[in-house]
Specification:
The complex is a heteropentamer of chains A (380), B (237), C (257), D (291) and E (314). Chain C is an alpha/beta fold and 257 residues long. Chain C has 10 helices and 10 strands. In chain C, α3 runs parallel beside α6. The complex binds adenosine-5'-triphosphate (2 copies) and magnesium ion (2 copies).
Chain lengths: 380, 237, 257, 291, 314
Amino acid sequence: EGKYDVGASDTEIKMGHFNPYSGPVSAWGTVGKLQSAFWKKINEEGGINGRKINFISYDDAYSPPKAVEQSRRLVESDQVLGLFNPMGTASNLAIQKYMNGMKVPQIFVSSGAIAFGNPSVYPWTMGWLNYASEGRVYARYLLEQKPDAKVALFYQNDDFGKGFVNGFREALGDKAKTMIVGEASYEISEPTIDSQIVTLKATGADVLFNMSSPKFAAQAIRKLADLNWKPMHFLTSSSAQIGSTLGPAGLENSVGIISTNYYKDSTDPRWKDDPAMQNWNAFMDKYYPEGDKTDTTNVYAYLVSETIAQVLKQAGDDLTRENVMRQAANLQQFSTPLLLPGVTISTSATDYFPIEQLQLIQFNGHTWDFIGGVIDGSAE
Amino acid sequence: MTALLSVKGLTASYGDGQVLSGVDFEVQRGGVTVLLGANGAGKTTTLRALCGMVRRSGDIVLDGAPIQNLSTEGVVRLGVAHVPDGRGTFAQLTVDENLQLGSITRRDRRGIGEDVERCFTYFPVLKERRGQQAGTLSGGEQQMLAVARALMLRPKLMLLDEPSFGLAPMIVKQIFAIFRTLSESTSVSMLIVEQNAALALELADHAYLLETGRVVFSGRPDDIRNDPTLRRSYLGY
Amino acid sequence: MTSPVASIRDVAMRFGGILALDGVSFDIGPEQIVGLIGPNGAGKTTLFNCLSRLYTPTSGDILLHGRSLLGRPAYSIAALGIGRTFQNLALFPKLSVADNIKVGGHAEIAGDFISDALRLPRARAGARELDRRVGAIVDELELGALAQRLVGDLPFGTQKRVELARALATNPSLLLLDEPAAGLNHEEVDELGGVIRRIRDGRRISILLVEHHMGLVMSLSDHVVALNFGRKIAEGTPLKVQADEAVAAAYLGGTAQ
Amino acid sequence: MELLLQQILSGLATGTIYACMALAVVMIYQAIGHLNFAQGEMATFSTFVAWQLLAWGVPYWAAFVLTIALSFVAGVLIERVVFRPLHGAPALSHIVVFIALLAIFNNGAGFIWDFTIKSFPSPFGQTTMFGSMLNAHQAGMIVCTLVMLVLLYLFFSRTRLGLAMRAAAANPESARLVGIRVGWMIALGWGLASAIGAVAGMLIAPIIFLEPNMMLGVLLYGFAGAVLGGLTSPVGAVVGGLVVGVVENLAGTYVPVVGSELKLTIALSLIILVLIFKPSGLFGRAVAKRV
Amino acid sequence: MTIERTTALVFLICALAVPAMISGFVTFQLTMLLIYAIAIMGLNLLTGFNGQFSLGHSAFYAIGAYTAAILMDQFGIGYIWTLPAAGLVCFAVGFLFGFPALRLEGTYLALATFGLAVATPQILKLTPLEHWTGGVQGVFVMKPNAPFGLPLTSDQWLYYLTLAAFVLLYVLAKNLVTSRTGRALLAIRENPIAAQSMGINVSLYKTLTFGVSAAYTGIAGALGAIVIQFVAPDSFGFMLSVTFLVGVVVGGIAWLPGAIIGAAFILFVPNFAEDISKGLSGAVYGIIMILLIYVMPSGAGGIVSSALRVLRSR
Ligand SMILES: Nc1ncnc2c1ncn2[C@@H]1O[C@H](COP(=O)(O)OP(=O)(O)OP(=O)(O)O)[C@@H](O)[C@H]1O
Ligand SMILES: Nc1ncnc2c1ncn2[C@@H]1O[C@H](COP(=O)(O)OP(=O)(O)OP(=O)(O)O)[C@@H](O)[C@H]1O
Ligand SMILES: [Mg+2]
Ligand SMILES: [Mg+2]
């Protein structure tokens, strides 16, 4: 006999979710669509511990007021067990107080902001990864390899870009002042970022830390080639996809780019025969045929769904909100084949960021080479 | 003479209010017909109805063909030039462009050039103002432009809604002289709404009197001149 | 002679290459009806626009009760006592007849955003006062039956009457009428003549009248000024101006009637 | 000095992108007297169509011409189908429909072609020139924009069709009275604007990559350029676009502290400043009003 | 008049009674509806009544929201007081923006205000202002509870507070537009030159209207910040302005009660579109907008006024 809170019963678990299906960042909508497909598959395979998943996903149009509305609808009207992988920094910040006040899990927030891994204040909110850890990984690598580097920072002027900058600066410590010689940011509404790259080149930097989203990353890579500027080039993992960034920018222009990753790039030829990737491809064909297989967001969404499934499995028949939260904070070296070799997912009552292990990688013209082993990016 | 335009049972309405209730009249080929009536009688509406500028029903036959279902531009393209109430100048365009637009449906470049020159001899002030935005002309100058623009179509039927509106007495005489010349030397027919009834009746071969959307009188100009009440109302003596 | 209500002093107005007014001077006396005539494009409407400060003359001065108007902004002209109508109608088509006329009374009653939003007593008193005045004007010009109609739906002649009513609502001491008789038939013109005379007599105001309808000008005016190409070519009693050769040649056509 | 020159050149290259879009903006403004908010999305959609044709193996120039033709027809159809029933509706209602079209095209493109960026080929190649300050595509784009400018200028100022179109937009009722088929003029304007948008899209996509939101930012700058130059003037549109491109780069580079974060804001403020002194834009003709 | 009075009374009674019958979530939705209605009313005063086109009202909404958030967060000022403060700040900003706007018309004004809308989120993110605005992270706001021990949930209390603000602002707006000032606004919209000659200080009225309109929208923004408990720059993009404009048109140009209908549209129709299709929700929303404009080209206000005309002519 199970223990239940609202949203769960002997036969069903109701999961809430939101992300932008409309508006300027509706590209992320594929996460929700993939997850719907994923839970359909799980249900066809018998559900989790015999319970069917009822996955309810709404559009927040990337607008915090809308996110508040949708979350309240999910919690109060649809009566879900919790929110799983809701998307967007501002949207999640906007609902964080509410979720904690209601004591409803807000798990695996799809954002890299540091605010979502603060269990002592917000025990009901758990993040996924944080930009700062990734920034720290690059900084540590740089201090090791090129301590006298002159670094130019290029970032998106929002929480995403600034999150990286903060982690990076923090890990450089005192040397940040001398090492960072130039900074330029852009707004997503800007059509091109040529001007910023020209300015950064003029600073004489020999390292470029590129914290931009795929479109601007591709533009930057090409502008670098046009300008014949060849700094050591760090590119954040979310943009370091062969299919959606390096390909359009020109693979020949992308040689040498250093990034990190924790899961397999579906467009990387290296994984063509990998069973996990083949499995994923089969899933895409069967359950989400309209989805774009070159969009690695779909790998990410799959991976998150698997992790959620793991949490629910661990919860067993005790489907109270408290237990779900407890299990989410009790992932021990959970691993799925879509993760890069050596990367595992761990959480604890004090560690609310499941993904902190990252693999440094470098592009060789057609695939990613691993540089060294997996690095842990958590703060010291 | 045969009828160029014949109208039967014409009704017209704005929104939910009917303004014309069954108007019948004719314009003879090469003839001049005058439409008289008090303020608000429906004269302007009649002209607008002929051109499909208001919702209308009834039979309108131009040159033997029914036109009551044509669009405004369709009617104009059959050779009907309309000097509308309020002049309808293209305020932002120059005088020259306004004249060019009058002949926009014509294809004979040469003839157009000649006609522009002719308009300038009729209204020399327009020539001086040819590059000026039409909206900055004085009221009377705009009225001249509206008449000139209608002439640029080389129409077979002219619908003139108060052509003398705002014109100085001398110019009024001039344009009626122009109408007379046109009427005598070409085959153009005219339907004139005019408050200066004396001048209009001199030109006309037939007159209709409109009252609240109905024809209440139809006859030759002399019939009006000879009727004491009509004479007082419309001719002022 | 008593001091003039308004004096136009050597006013010139240039638009690019066009000299629309060229040193025009004349006076408008108290309770006088002054007729302003001249061919099309002579500058009559331009002079009106200078008087109501929509244009600033290139040179010259305009005095109202002895004080220059030129430093005043256009919106203050109504309050100073100049009301006007427009040659090509400038009504507010989507407003009712009553509201159009009430706008004319805008400067005549007090009010501002705050007292209006809060319906303070003074705003309500002002509104009542305006209702009363507009009611009187509506009756005077026989617009009562149309008061709630939208102006844009009315025939041209009626719109002109609404415009006259609106100008009267500004409570002017000098009324500028730009071709009030255009588009009216004989009967209506005669009627209009009566109305204008009644307005002058009833309110003891001065009127500057631009009109191409000679019969009306000559029968109404105490004094007539004729313009041509922006210059004054004749001035005097109606009979004198009508008999003037230059006026006949430039304006009336042929010889003097 | 080197940096200044670089920034100016790069500003001109970017400005050409804006100029391209500004031309389409001017075209539609002349035809309907409004800014069309959906114009960017329509251009993006056209570019996706071209991309699809190329993906199916159609040769570049054939795809180019075919896309322009299809866009023209689509523009005409949009006017005839969507806007014709709205003749006489208030202007603000039209704006709501523009916004609706924006949503439809944006969403449609994302639905059909997904959101990942796609590279779009350039007919001019990407080799660099002028000391690597411009690449061949940017140079080719400048030439194409100038050609479009000349054609548009001639169309509006020299052809009777152009005159008829301006008349139809300025005063539809009078235009009917001189026999202009106003409905078709407006439809033609939509067709041409949509075709120009397609050209702009196909020229811009190789630089900024094709994706459903490609034109969101470009259109904003295109509006700014067109308004700065004067919405009635194709020459103004191009000059305006270039000025916006350069000013924005210089602001971003040389205004201390806030420059890089506010480069668009600074550019917009300058535009508003210009408009205050010249309310109809640098090259636009002021509409004189009189009573 | 009586029809209108009765409707207003019925509306008010329903509005007062409804929280007792609905869940907290729906109460919250209705609160948002009223907030948007206030913003739309503000925009309508400017665009609908005065004929000045604005695509910049997201900026005033943002300024109102940030004013409230910063006053509460940094200065510990009670939330009630932030409402008039937001109104005043926005009035000042709107009034000042009204001056350059005086020189511009129609499309050019639209673009200038569009610029304002685009620039605002960027200014809010500005590093030198981060201390107050929280930069890209935004500012949190505490959710107030019902005062004086009223037996209301926090949702209900905020609903009544917003309702009170709405009713007050509606009455003020209604008084304004039916007064001498309102006539002046309409006259300026219809014919500014004639309005001027009739003694209306056109510049003053236009700038004041800009200010008042901004103040309405700013108060809505402040209420929004209190209800959502959070402000962040990217919530206030240009699309929010567009949304308000859609609300004005759907509700009816220059028709105040339309604000409620417009707000309901922008709040509920996107949800409805999403129910029809997730992947194509934007397109469905677009199609609904177009169909709506076909059915009522002048918005709900147009339908109501022609219905009233028919009723009266009976
Ligand atoms: N746009 C409109 N909407 C509603 N009613 C209108 C409209 N235009 C005219 N009317 C009505 O139609 C009737 C006839 O008007 P019309 O303009 O045809 O008269 P008219 O004989 O030309 O008068 P006028 O001598 O004043 O020009 C009038 O009663 C008027 O109120
Ligand atoms: N804003 C302007 N720009 C250029 N020219 C103008 C402007 N306003 C008036 N004009 C010119 O000035 C002259 C005088 O115009 P005005 O309107 O004063 O004439 P008017 O005497 O009222 O003529 P009418 O009897 O035809 O109304 C005209 O030739 C006109 O073209
Ligand atoms: Mg008439
Ligand atoms: Mg005049």
